[in-house]
Design goal:
Elements lengths: L2 E5 L2 E4 L4 E8 L6 E8 L6 E6 L6 E3 L7 E6 L4 E6 L8 E9 L16 E2 L3 E6 L1
Parallel strand pairs: 2-11
Antiparallel strand pairs: 1-3, 3-8, 4-5, 4-9, 5-6, 7-8, 9-10, 9-11
């Protein structure tokens, strides 16, 4: 079982940046592919960004690729989501997710069903 704890959310003005963090309580964090998803009420979780276990590959939803950046620091067992120029439509609960990846891969996981572990989420609210 991998425990994931997101942080960094809050109420932010439109146009400002925000960095979300996801700390993993896992000794071998470097073996995990990581992803970020967002969810708004009465809708399913939507893929936002993902990164492979080596950090060699990243991928983003088309709607956010020019403003969102995912990165990881394996020495801190943490994955980050940098959001630039926040928009009111970015308002959502943001979840990080993890899946053990025993083989090196350049393919980023984009489906929620592919991830085995989830954090509790962090609320991001963007005021206009």
């Amino acid at each position: 079982q991998v425990q994931l704890v997101e942080s960094g959310g809050g109420l932010v003005q439109s146009g400002r940046p925000l960095r979300l963090s996801c700390a993993a309580f896992e000794r071998i964090f470097s073996l995990y592919a990581m992803g970020w998803f967002l969810q708004v009420p009465v809708q399913e979780r939507v893929f936002v960004a993902g990164i492979t276990r080596t950090g060699g590959s990243t991928d983003y939803a088309d709607t956010v690729k020019d403003r969102f950046t995912i990165s990881r620091d394996d020495t801190k067992s943490t994955v980050y989501l940098q959001i630039d120029s926040l928009k009111p439509e970015d308002t959502a609960v943001y979840y990080c997710a993890a899946k053990a990846s025993l083989r090196f891969s350049i393919v980023v996981l984009k489906s929620a069903n592919e991830y085995a572990y989830w954090g509790q989420g962090t609320q991001v609210t963007v005021s206009s």
